[in-house]
Write a structure and sequence with these properties.
Elements lengths: L16 H17 L3 E2 L5 E3 H8 L4 H6 L2 E3 L5 E4 L4 H10 L11 E10 L11 E10 L4 H17 L5 E7 L3 H15 L8 H6 L5 H4 L4 H7 L11 H16 L5 E2 L11 E9 L9 E8 L3 H4 L7 E7 H10 L12 E5 L5 H13 L4 E3 L6 H10 L4 E5 L1 H6 L1 E6 L5 E5 H6 L1 H10 L2
Helix pairs in contact: 1-5, 5-10
EC number: 6.1.1.21
GO biological process, one term: histidyl-tRNA aminoacylation
Keywords: Aminoacyl-tRNA synthetase, ATP-binding, Cytoplasm, Ligase, Nucleotide-binding, Protein biosynthesis
Length: 431
């Protein structure tokens, strides 16, 4: 039997994993500036956590979730997105309590799972970096979150970005708009896709998110939610637009954008790239919005929320296609060359001693001749070589070479084990 990774998954191998580490570390540093702290939630949750929050008519729930009954007959779901699990944790751990600062800011990183047709940048196991902020209605938080997402993408060298925003309003807005949308769509019911027919009276906003080409054509002339905003919703959205203007952030208002999850309201946004990775077609790499009411759905008190999710695979596709050179360091500082079997123990001791001192170290494990070891050190771009043979072992000495200049000095093994940094500076100054 030939064993292969499951369809729609990927092995992230050395050489690639460094890019992931760089992206994650860059995000962590930026989030720290905005005072977001990391939360890690389970990869699987109760089915209801997602079916209740994502919307029973959404593609995620109806088509894409990996769900199953475990041995205790519990209905379990591999998480298809990050927000619902964070909200569940926020409620369960009572992070809304008076002892916690508002807004309560947190971020997450990790794998998500959706059963869909695998394609470039869209896998069945994919990875997201996301942020969530709870407890504040102020539209300034919406704009801060959007700005943080843009700053993160720009920190990787991405310049050709487009920000689309919309509002889904409050409950009053959506109730009025829902009826207007149904009235508009009903004459086209026979022409709609089967999914949209199913959603027409249950959740007509989902029709706006349809990927079916005929559906897209029909909704082109649908009424705009912007014409149905309550005074409160209009004021919130106008403030968001004004604050974006004040920060010099360019945007377009897309009144047909609804996002793929039912929990959003008020501000929603997508940040798109027209990278060569997407053949110049504007494609979303980061998106999010406000979700007031989601905390209550999972048993918590009335608490507003705002956040975004970024697809790591898509981001890396853009970086690779646009040839953005990530400043990834994988420097080998010292290669320990051991000549003869008799030096095997001492080369191990030296390597471990240098690592404890904070240096990146490699040694030979294949009993290669000195020439082969030096060749390996050169190929790995080692900064120094530390060579020990039987004679050096007897003398408790080693030969230290600075590879860039070729400078070489003899050093005591005791000094190597006690203060290699000092020896490194000495050999650099030789000659």
């Amino acid at each position: 039997m030939k064993y292969q990774r499951p369809k729609g998954t990927a092995d992230i191998l050395p050489g690639e994993s460094e890019k992931w580490q760089y992206v994650e570390e860059k995000a962590r540093k930026l989030f720290k500036k905005y005072r977001y702290e990391e939360m890690r939630t389970p990869i699987f949750e109760s089915f209801e956590v997602f079916s209740r929050t994502s919307g029973e008519t959404s593609d995620i729930v109806t088509k894409e979730m990996y769900d199953f009954f475990d041995k205790g007959d519990r209905h379990i779901t591999l998480r298809p997105e990050g927000t619902a699990g964070v909200v569940r944790s926020y409620v369960e751990n009572k992070l809304y309590g008076p002892e916690f600062q508002k807004p309560y800011k947190t971020f997450y990183m990790g794998p998500m799972f959706r059963y869909e047709r695998p394609q470039s940048g869209r896998l069945r196991e994919f990875h997201q970096i996301g942020v969530e902020a709870f407890g504040v209605e102020n539209p300034a938080l919406d704009v801060e979150v959007i700005s943080m997402a843009i700053n993160l993408l720009k920190s990787f060298g991405l310049e050709s970005l487009k920000l689309s925003i919309n509002t889904l309003g409050d409950k009053e807005t959506r109730e009025q708009y829902r009826q207007a949308l149904i009235s508009y769509l009903e004459p086209f019911e026979s022409e709609l896709s089967d999914d949209s027919k199913e959603r027409l009276h249950k959740n007509p906003l989902r029709v706006l998110d349809s990927k079916d080409e005929k559906d897209k054509k029909i909704v082109e002339n649908a009424p705009s939610i912007l014409d149905y905003l309550s005074d409160e919703s209009k004021n919130h959205f106008d403030t968001v637009c004004n604050l974006l203007d004040s920060l010099g952030i360019k945007y377009v208002v897309d009144s047909n954008m609804v996002r793929g999850l039912d929990y959003y309201n008020h501000t929603i946004f997508e940040i798109m790239s027209d990278s060569k990775a997407f053949k110049g077609k504007w494609t979303t790499i980061c998106a999010g919005g406000r979700y007031n009411g989601l905390v209550e759905q999972l048993g918590g008190p009335e608490t507003p929320g705002m956040g975004f999710g970024l697809g790591v695979e898509r981001l890396l596709l853009v970086l690779d296609a646009d040839e953005n050179q990530l400043p990834i360091e994988n420097n080998l500082e010292v290669y320990v060359v051991g000549i003869g079997e008799v030096t095997n123990t001492e080369t191990l001791v030296l390597a471990e001693s240098l690592r404890i001192q904070g240096f990146s170290v490699e040694r030979d494990y294949l009993n290669r001749k000195p020439k082969g070891q030096f060749k390996t050190a050169s190929r790995l771009n080692a900064e120094f070589t530390l060579t020990i043979g039987e004679q050096e072992l007897n003398e408790q000495k080693a030969n230290l070479k600075y590879m860039e200049s070729g400078n070489e000095i003899k050093v005591s093994l005791a000094d190597v084990k006690n203060n290699f940094a000092n020896l490194a500076e000495q050999v650099k100054k030789e000659g």
